[in-house]
Amino acid sequence: MKINENTRIVGSKVVLVPYKKKYVERYHQWMKSEELQYLTGSEPLTIEEEYQMQESWHNDDNKCTFIILDRNRFDKTNPVDSMIGDTNLYLNDIEEPFTAECEIMIAEKCARGQKMGWEALILILRYGIEALKINKYRAKIKIDNEKSIKMFNKLRFNEISRSVVFEEVTLECDATAIKFRPLFFNSVAYGSFYTGAEFLQQTYNINQKEKAAAVLNNTPVNSNKLFPDKFKLEDYNVPVLRRYLTYGYFLAGPILHGWYSWLDKMFKGTAPKIVVTKLLCDQFILTPPLVVLFFTSMSVMEGKKTENLLDECKAKFVKTFATSCIFWLPVQFVNFLLIPPSFRVLYVSVASFCWVNILCHLKLNFLFNVTATAYNRIGIDDFNQCDVLSWVMTIFKVGNYHKNAIKTGLCKVFTNISRRDFTTI
Asked: Checking DSSP bridges between strand 63-70 and strand 83-90, what pairing results, if any?
C-alpha cells in the first residue's frame, strides 16, 4: 500500500517502518523457519519470489505492511539489523470496506516476551483507525497459538468462529474498543450515569416537596411539572452525591468492567444456551454481592459504627434482589444477545439510570396522589396548621381512609425523603 510508504510509527520499544526491498533478504531468512511457516500459514518461497511478493504488496491498495524494528537497536545500528518481525493490515472484504484483517509476527526469539509485539500491534491498530478509518478488525490465529490469542483477547478481540479444517480461530474487535481505554471509559460511564440518577432523583424530590407545600397552602399546583423552576445547590444533599460518585467510579464501574470481560471470555458467542448461562451467572452470582457492597459501602461512607454496617443491608437485601430480578433479567438478556462486549458496561449504566429514576417517579407520584386525595377528603380548613406533624395527626383522626398509605407515605413526603428508602440496584 503506497499510502504508508513514507510513514514511520515510533513507540517506546518498537518502530514501525514500511516493508521495502532492503528488508526482503532478512525476511526471507525468517520464513525458512518451519515454525513461522506453520504459525503464519505460509509456503516457502525463493528469494526472487520474495522480492516479487514485496513489490506486489507495495502496489496493492488493500494491503498495509510494516516491518517491526527494535527501537533500542535502531537507535544504535541500521534498520536491517534492528528487524524483529512484521505486522500487516489486509482490507480484502468488499462488502465491508472499513473492516481489516490484522496479523503480527515476532520472528526474532530474543524479542518475544518483551511486550514488543503488544506495542507494535497497538500502534498498527491505532494507525488503521486514524489513517485508514477502520471501524472493525479481524484476526485469524492458529488454535494452538495460545499466547497470541491471549494478547488479542486483552485488546478486546472476541472469538466469532473456529475452523477445525484450517486449525484456526477467528477473532473480531470493534475499533472503538481500542480507541478508548476500556477500564477508564467504563468506570467513568457508570459513575456518571449512577451519580446522575441520584442527582435527578434529588431534583425530582425537591419538586415533589414544592407540590406538597402548595397543597398545604391551597395554592394552584402544576401536577405535570417534573422539576423545579430554579436549581439551588443548597437544596441538594451533596454528601449523598459524593457517595454515589465514589461507588460508581471506583467500585461498581471497575467491578462490572472486569466481570463482563471475564464472562465473555468464559462463555463465547450468542447461542441461546450461552446467553441463558451468562444471564443466570450475572443475576445470581454477581448481583447478590454487588447489592451487599452497595449497602455496606454506603454505610461506611455515612460513618456508621462497625456493628451497624450491615443493618440496612439485612433490612433491604431480599426485597432489593427480588425486585432487581424483575427488571434486570430481560434487560441483561438483550445485553448478552445484542450488545457488543465493549459496550456492555455502558448499556448497563444507561439501564441503571432509567431503572432508578423509574422507581423514584412511581414512588413519589403515588405519595403525591395520596396527599391530594387526603386534601380533598378532609377539607381546606384542616390544612391551615403550620406544624407538619400536627397536620399528619389531623389526617390520622379522619378514620381509615387510605390509612396504611398515609402512614407509610405522607410522613416521608414531609420529613425530607431519603432516596435510599426505595433504592434498588
From this structure: antiparallel
